[in-house]
From TrEMBL:
Topological relation to the membrane, as annotated: Multi-pass membrane protein
Protein location: Cell membrane
A GO CC annotation given for this chain: plasma membrane
Alphabetic keyword roster: Cell membrane, Membrane, Sugar transport, Transmembrane, Transmembrane helix, Transport
TM region positions: 48-77, 89-112, 132-158, 193-211, 217-235, 242-263, 269-288
Protein name, entry field: Simple sugar transport system permease protein
UniProt GO molecular function: transmembrane transporter activity
Organism: Mumia flava
PANTHER family named among the record's database cross-references: GUANOSINE ABC TRANSPORTER PERMEASE PROTEIN NUPQ, SUGAR ABC TRANSPORTER INTEGRAL MEMBRANE PROTEIN-RELATED
Main location, first listed in the record: membrane
Signal peptide: none
Keyword Lyase recorded: no
Domain of life: Bacteria
Amino acid sequence: MIHTLTELLVASVALGIPILLASSAEVVSERAGVLNMSVEAMMLTGCFTSVLVAATTGSVIVGTLAGATAGLVVGALQSLLSVTLRADQIVTGIALNTLALAGTTFGARLLLSRDTIAPGFDRVAVPLLSDVPVVGPAVFNLPALAYVLAPLLVLLALATSRRTGWGLAIDAVGEDATRADWAGIAVRRIRHLVVLLVGVASGLAGSYLALAQVHTFADNMTAGIGYLAVVAVIAARWKPALVAVVALVFGVAQALQFTLPVLGVDLPVAFLVMLPYVLALAAVAGFVTRSAGPSALTVPFVRPGH
């Protein structure tokens, strides 16, 4: 039983980390009024590009940076459409997801083979702590990239805290962009920056999924993880501190797909696959009615007189 619980927690953390990476940036973007449904596209292009570049160059570091850059490119396109051109944020996000799915599938057929294996990140065990029963193998025996990204997430949370000037400016833009503009806050600049931030973070999440987990690329390998990252923000009621908890819960829901059959729980495969998304719907239904999001979320900013 202890062995099974350990395996469940290990899988939950592994599957929850990509969601946490993307949702930690997405919550900042939504606080500034921009909803990025294209997180899935950013992650998927990050997966494909990181594997392609890592397999070509033999460098996992170069592959990771390439994945982050690919996510940044998708983020720049989302920023152009939603902030500059003021297109519908939900429609453009879904369109980019569809484009990324088709593009990476075609690219894999063209540039990768089924036996393409990219170099990946080895697991690094923290002495003593990794030997702690159940928790140790899951939290203190992670791929090297996780130990690099963890402090970056902490810095992101601190920099965008409501106790900082930038954090207050982000919230002001997300609540009332017009009044924020009157106060001298560069509304469009902030919104561009936060969307680009989501692009980089989601690209890194895709790189982590590909290079730290499976070391290869498969069609639609994100399989809706990007959407779960967006839902995690809503379920966490736009509170950065709760995002990590929700991301881990979604990781557990995904891990149960593999753990329940081992425990002898006889459930249809289709139900196990859709379990994370059923949980996501339940989370949104339970939390969204209790907490209003930023007032200007999804509302394009138009300067009066322009």
